[in-house]
Write a structure and sequence with these properties.
- The protein is mainly alpha-helical.
- It has two domains: 1-46; 48-100, no CATH class.
- The protein contains three helices and two strands; from the N terminus they run ααββα.
- It has helices spanning 3-21, 29-44, 73-85, and strands at 54-55, 70-71.
- The protein has a two-stranded antiparallel sheet with strand order 1-2.
- α1 (3-21) runs antiparallel to α2 (29-44).
- The two termini are 42 Å apart.
């Protein structure tokens, strides 16, 4: 199913829920419509976002040193690869991380 078809189905579902809600006074309908709108907006975004991943290393005594951040570049690259791969199943995406 393409992105366009998914958005079309979400819009149709939203319209149906809205029309049905006129016959019902269910309080959760507004939440359902908001959820569908959020899903549509998610599909309309043409950018990929990933979280910045890091950890705090332990000092000599085994305590986390929160003054130091060690970024997990490999983990972020893998997450980015996964998100890019979702765009087209026929493409293999590989990112690499190297220290310079």
């Amino acid at each position: 199913m393409t992105k366009k078809e998914i958005i079309q189905q979400l819009n149709e579902a939203s319209n149906w829920i809205y029309e049905t809600s006129n016959e019902s006074k269910e309080p959760h309908i507004a939440q359902m419509l908001e959820g569908i709108e959020n899903a549509i907006n998610h599909f309309l975004v043409d950018k990929i976002e990933i979280d910045i991943a890091y950890y705090h290393p332990e000092d000599a005594e085994g305590n986390e040193d929160e003054t130091i951040k060690v970024f997990d570049f490999e983990g972020m690259a893998e997450e980015f690869e996964n998100e890019l791969s979702k765009l087209d199943d026929s493409v293999v995406v590989m990112c690499s991380v190297e220290n310079i």
